[in-house]
Structures are given as structure tokens and as C-alpha cells.
Automatic annotation (TrEMBL):
InterPro entries: Carb-sel_porin_OprB, OprB_sf. The lineage of its organism: Bacteria, Pseudomonadati, Bacteroidota, Chitinophagia, Chitinophagales. This is High affinity Mn2+ porin. GO terms for biological process: carbohydrate transport. It comes from Chitinophaga dinghuensis. Residues 1-25 form the signal peptide.
Length: 450
């Protein structure tokens, strides 16, 4: 049975069981504040980059000449319905289209978080999320959760186990950060709004299917999940079986500096997939094995399994004052097997500040500034230097250097619903190549949310 059929069957069984349980237990003692939630977002991003020094280029290089403006569009409807006590179903139709600079290739810390790993595409409608969420009580205390994106306003247990099952983005639950998380309102760069070294399981648009279980306590939380992985690198179809699956666990704890709050998170992941190793890729380059090279590029389906990628991450956000917040991330994966879902980063360090505009009487505006240093494993490095290609990188050669990126933005709140953002990124050694760059990237973003 296909994974989608299994998930649908599990949801139906769970729905029937919980409906019967509620009927037996009598009236709700915790009435919901709302039965429905509706929200909508639309984001348009336009980007352009400068020409730059380049000694050579390959199939996946960032264009060294000035490209036409690259424009992306996403629009999402967030619908939620309370089902029974402490349970809700969330459903998100979405439309996306447009393109990234050089088809979102050539920079490991990719430049537009709203551009998926595809070239120019016509706008397409699809189901981004469809999942059931159930809270299980662990204590007597309650807390009120206000209406929000994929959150029905409700009174829920303060101490609880929360189970989410269905289709979602795994990054919805993990690696959260108050100041560097959302490319629709904060930083554009992939390696700032997410841990770049976490090759998190997702289809081409960023979604997967599976189960997430969370233990929520007042001062800490623990999350664990098992989800499907792409059948082909950077592919829209997913699979889940004994040879293909991904597990993630995260521990989150509250921080406090004086009266200022923050959080620290530790993440570990393990993924089994059809990804070949970079050592196999090197042999394929030497033997001119185009089939295996196409597997690594995401152009062919591997006939065997074997990819086992492990990773670690740390994530901190901390309020420094009423108007200033600090954040940083540290990430690592073993770098032995080909990148399969997110981007070609095996080691990453990022950090920055977000500053509200209170001082200049624009309290809802935000200025952000952040820096990133990305790296790859020796095996990955040797593969690219030999002329190999992933689905993000490949200049045909490689004079290796760490990829370093500086990003700054100004997000202006024009009214209750509309934001306009000016963004600048400086990229040194794009694609880890000292023979190319640096690059100046300019962006403009419009965002509507209600």
C-alpha cells in the first residue's frame, strides 16, 4: 500500500476511535474558543545579482553575467477545524510559481527561501499540508493558545503529548527560531532560516508525510518523528519503507538572561534513502558511469538502497532587549552520501540580529543582519572537484573555499496586512569555489498576510 493510502487509513481509524471515546466521556470540560481558523498569505520576491569574476562555469553554476530579474510567487490558504476535545485537522492548499536566479543553483546557501529546487515553472496548485493533530493530557493545568496559522484558538493542557499525522513540512515542527525562520517575513537565505546541514526529508516543494510526536512541558519540549523521503534526489514523489525513511529528534529548553527569555534546541537526524555515496560518485566519474551520476543529480532513480546520513544541529534565539534579538545555528552531517532533499551543505555556522524600528518611530518594522559560513565534507569536495554534479552545485571543477554569505534586510510594515522588504546578500566563494565571485544579490519582497 502506498504511503498516502496508509496515512489516510490511519487517520480514518484514529478519527473513529476518538469520536467513540468522546461520545463515551460526556460533555467537554474545556470548551474551545473557536471551531475554525482561516488565514491567507501571498508572497512575491524579485531578485537580481551583479556580474562577477569567473574562471570557468559548469551546468550548475550561478551565472557570472547579469541575469534577468528572477521572480517567485507563493500563495497559501491555511484552514483548520476543531474535531473533538484537543483535536483538529489542518488543510493548506497552495499555489507556487516563478524561478530563482540560475534556476536556484550555484550557491549552497541558496538565495531565495521561497524558490524551490526547480527552474522556471508556471504557477501550480497543490496540497501543501493535510494533517490531524491530537493533544493528550499529562497534567491538570491548562493554557490558552490563540488563533494563528494552523492553530485553532483553544484551551489545551499545559503538559501534554501532541501527535501530528499526515502531510506537512517537517521544518514546521523542528529548528524553530524567533528571528531566523520565515523567508516570507525575515531572511531570504536558506542557510539562515533553516539549518543548512540538515538535509531534512522533503519533496521538491518542501513537504513530506509521516508522524511527529511532541512532549510539551512548561520549560522544555522533546520532539521525535518518522517520515517519508524522496524516491529520487530532489523529487516530488516520496517513499516510506524499511530501507527508506527519516527520523529526527529535538530537545528544546527555555533560556533566561535576567528578565530576557530565549530558547536553545539540540537536533539529531538519521536518514535512509537511495542516495549513493560520494565515493561511489568519484568512481562513477572515473568510469564514466552516467547512470549513477544522473542518480546523484536527481535525474534517475537508483535501483538499490544504501544511503545513511546522520546529522546534528544546535539552534539558539535570545531576546537582548525589548527591540533586539540574537540568534545562531550550528550544523553538521557526516557528508558521506549525496545530498538528497535540501541543499549541499555538510557544515554550517550562522548568526545574526533582528532589530525593531522603535528608535525611529517604526515599531513594527524590522532590520536584520546575519552571516553564514558553509562547508562540505572531504568526500563531497573531491566529488565536485572531479567534475561531479549534485542537484544544486557543480562548476565542473573546484578550487575549494568555504562559502561565506552576509545578508541584511529591512522589513517595513506598511499596514495591518502588507509588508515590503528590501534585501541584500553578499556571497563569497559561491558553491565553495575560490575561482568564482564574489556576488552581490539584491531583492525586493511583498508579503500579504491575514
Amino acid at each position: 500500500m502506498a504511503i498516502k493510502q496508509k496515512i489516510i487509513a490511519a487517520i480514518v481509524v484514529w478519527f473513529s476511535f476518538m469520536k467513540m471515546t468522546v461520545a463515551q466521556s460526556g460533555a467537554d470540560s474545556l470548551p474551545a474558543a473557536s471551531k475554525w481558523t482561516f488565514h491567507f498569505q501571498a508572497t512575491v520576491i524579485g531578485q537580481k545579482h551583479s556580474g562577477f569574476r569567473s574562471l570557468y562555469r559548469g551546468d550548475n553554476s550561478l551565472a557570472d553575467s547579469v541575469e534577468p530579474t528572477a521572480v517567485s510567487l507563493t500563495a497559501t490558504l491555511f484552514i483548520g477545524r476543531k474535531l473533538w476535545k484537543n483535536a483538529a485537522f489542518y488543510f493548506n492548499p497552495e499555489i507556487s510559481g516563478g524561478k530563482g536566479l540560475s534556476s536556484a543553483a550555484g550557491v549552497a546557501g541558496a538565495l531565495n527561501g521561497e524558490t524551490y529546487r526547480v527552474g522556471a515553472v508556471q504557477p501550480q496548485v497543490f496540497i501543501a499540508r493535510a494533517y490531524l493533530q491530537q493533544h493528550f493530557r499529562l497534567g491538570k493545568a491548562n493554557e490558552y493558545i490563540s488563533d494563528g496559522v494552523n492553530q485553532v484558538a483553544d484551551v489545551v493542557p499545559s503538559r501534554r503529548i501532541t501527535v501530528s499525522i499526515g502531510k506537512f513540512a517537517i521544518a514546521d515542527f523542528y529548528d524553530n527560531n524567533a528571528y531566523g525562520k520565515d523567508p516570507r517575513t525575515q531572511f531570504f537565505n536558506w542557510a539562515i532560516w533553516a539549518n543548512g546541514a540538515w538535509d531534512y526529508p522533503a519533496n521538491t516543494r518542501g513537504y513530506t508525510e509521516g508522524v511527529v510526536v511532541e512532549l510539551i512541558e512548561p520549560k522544555y519540549a522533546v520532539r521525535i518523528s518518522t517520515v517519508a523521503v524522496p524516491r529520487i534526489a530532489n523529487y516530488h514523489l516520496m517513499e516510506y519503507n524499511v530501507h527508506a525513511h527519516s527520523e529526527t529528534i529535538e530537545f528544546e529548553h527555555q533560556l533566561r538572561i535576567g528578565q530576557r527569555t530565549g530558547k536553545i534546541r539540540f537536533l539529531a537526524s538519521g536518514t535512509y534513502s537511495r542516495a549513493p555515496s560520494y565515493q561511489q560518485g568519484l568512481q562513477a566519474v572515473a568510469n564514466k558511469d552516467t547512470f549513477l551520476l544522473n542518480v546523484i543529480r536527481g535525474l534517475s532513480e537508483n535501483t538499490s538502497f544504501g544511503g545513511r546520513k546522520y546529522g546534528l544541529g544546535m539552534n539558539i534565539d535570545q531576546e537582548l532587549s525589548d527591540d533586539i534579538g540574537l540568534f545562531c545555528r550550528l550544523g553538521w552531517n557526516d557528508g558521506k552520501y549525496a545530498t538528497w532533499a535540501f541543499t549541499e551543505i555538510d557544515r554550517t555556522l550562522s548568526g545574526g540580529l533582528a532589530i525593531k524600528g522603535t528608535k525611529w518611530k517604526r515599531r513594527n518594522d524590522v532590520v536584520g543582519i546575519a552571516g553564514i559560513v558553509n562547508g562540505i565534507s572531504p568526500d563531497h569536495r573531491n566529488f565536485l572537484a572531479a567534475g561531479g554534479y549534485g542537484f544544486i552545485l557543480g562548476d565542473g571543477r573546484l578550487n575549494y573555499g568555504h562559502e561565506a554569505i552576509l545578508e541584511t534586510y529591512y522589513n517595513a510594515q506598511l499596514n495591518k496586512f502588507l509588508q515590503l522588504t528590501f534585501d541584500y546578500q553578499f556571497v563569497n566563494h559561491p558553491g565553495y569555489n575560490k575561482d568564482r565571485g564574489p556576488v552581490h544579490v539584491f531583492g525586493l519582497r511583498g508579503h500579504i498576510m491575514f
